[in-house]
Amino acid sequence: MSRPVRTRFAPSPTGFLHVGGARTALYCWAFARHHKGQFILRIEDTDLERSTPEAVQAILDGMAWLGLHPDEGPFYQMQRMDRYREVITQLINKGLAYHCYCSPDELEAMRNEQRSRGAKPRYDGRWRPENASRLGLTPPAGIAPVVRFRNPDQGPVSWEDGVKGRISISNDELDDLIIARGDGTPTYNFCVVVDDWDMTISHVIRGDDHINNTPRQINILKALGAELPEYAHLPMIHGSDGEKLSKRHGAVSVMQYEADGYLPQALLNYLARLGWSHGDDEIFSLDQLVEWFTLENCSKSAAQFDFEKLRWLNNHYIKQQPIDFLAGQLKGRLHAEGLNPENGPSLASVCELLRDRAHTLCELAEEAAMFFREPKPSREALAERLVGEVPKAMSALSAQIPESLDATQASALIKQQLADHGLKMPQLAMALRLALLGQTETPSIDRVMAVLGRERIQRRIASALSASI
Ligand code: GLU
Fold first, then answer.
1. Which sequence positions are flagged as catalytic?
2. DSSP characters for 363-385?
């Protein structure tokens, strides 16, 4: 790399942090880390109608939850207005930008005339100073002029895109872009250019929905005498039907994934692989991503969001977490369900028992809930299971439970009762499940008993036996 690597993530705060934005941020972050460079966060909040403080906060929260901490920023474009105006004045003074006094009606007439000739509608440059004087135009009263950038008339504007390869656009496709509105406010593409220049961004990595902006931005950067960044445009993320990923397909907001019980590690790992690959590796750490990340290995075509794969990865990371962390996560979720996790078996032991089969923390909490509720099996269910010798076996089992028991001891006790009462495992195990947890779908009964402990087992068996009479 010829210059220090500096990347930026530049979201517009108009809603929430979209998973597509998060993927862009992740790639910018990983690229900067890979090259021991800097990662910058810039909030593009100049669209006053659509930008909100809540949306800014949602982006900051999403980035913090993912752990994508910027080395610089957040910078806010609204705080840089003076700088944009300063550069606009410089461009005007150098003859690289000029005032245009066309009214909306005039522009409309211009376009209609071009369309009627079969030409592409575009601004014809009539207020370029040399044209205005040739045409004898003088600034009309009462019109606040816009400022237009004098786009080169000829030649191509080309760049070697880090993902897409060489891209070249002919300048005669581009007209003179408005860089400041009549009220003096700078326009979107212009702010991006000044920021990328001032922030000495070396690599612009962003979604390919911005590809059309790139030739215009390059032309302005060249006019400013700025060193051009490298550009890399990432293909979009699609849903299962090949359309751009949207709420229709499932959650798209990063913080919704948190609410739905995903771990940031899982979402990051998933997003890293969604549009980038390192051989057949599916599961890797952020350190490995940083070590391996190159733009060449980004896919050139759109990626398809696979919710099942994300669930699978989430299960993997849930299994990797320290038990205390999972217990902490569960505590809040159980409280939110109106349950009291302080009053029940140890949360850690419940997590240990359930986590292998949980795909999300929500699933884990749903399963865990049965340990913190008094079981209320229906009379019918009890009548179906507590038949023949089963109640006697349950009473005998209850009487023999030691003060502390592990799963092996619980299993031995159950087997003893089977032998003593001539029962088969499912007959007793199902009845115990129903009595102890109120349902027959539970983890293996010996492990459940070890988690519940003597006092709860005895109380729950007694109450099931009396309810079944
Ligand atoms: N603010 C733009 C967006 O949110 C990104 C601009 C850029 O990366 O150049 O789509």
1. 247
2. HHHHHHHHHHS-----HHHHHHH
